[in-house]
Amino acid sequence: MAEVVGNPGDDEPEKAVLTSFKKTFLDVPECWSTEAALETAFESANKSVRSSVYNRHAVTLSSIVILGGHLFIGHAGNNRVWLYREGRLQQLTSDHTQPRINQDPVLTRACGMESGIEMDFQCSEIQVGDV
Predict the structure, then answer these.
(1) What is the reported pLDDT for 52?
(2) Which of 8, 70, 95, 110 is placed for a possible disulfide with 58 were both Cys, Cβ 3.0 to 4.6 Å?
């Protein structure tokens, strides 16, 4: 999931991020760890939105990979990944925002904001019935 920040209706930066992410993730060698593959894909997505065409945009990005009975999450921004298990809803990601008094929080991490991107990563086992 990707979402452009501050410019609703302009989905081209989102498309660039998702296209770059998907291509890079699918092209990494199979011997790489899922974390390394996600980190590389996030770097590629970050570079795509920092290109001259989109250099004034920030795009949040969260990814979910289900592989071998595990859930792998890569995350940068304020998209939220949730897990519904055994009747309980649990937020799995944290927003990368800084609160401000009497104002909306400001985004602190997303694709396009810096030359490099720091991705949160987590892995957990999935269970029958997880949504």
Answers:
(1) 67
(2) 110
Cβ atoms of 24 and 41 within 8 Å: the answer is yes
3-class secondary-structure state, position 80: coil
- Alpha carbon distance 54, 52 (integer Å): 6
* φ, ψ for residue 58, nearest 5 deg: -120, 140
Can you give the C-alpha Rg of the chain in angstroms? 15
For the segment 39-75, what is each residue's pLDDT rounded down to a tens digit? 999 999 999 988 867 777 899 999 999 999 999 999 9
Closest CA to 1 of 102, 110, 129, 131: 110
- Per-residue tokens: 68: 């071998």
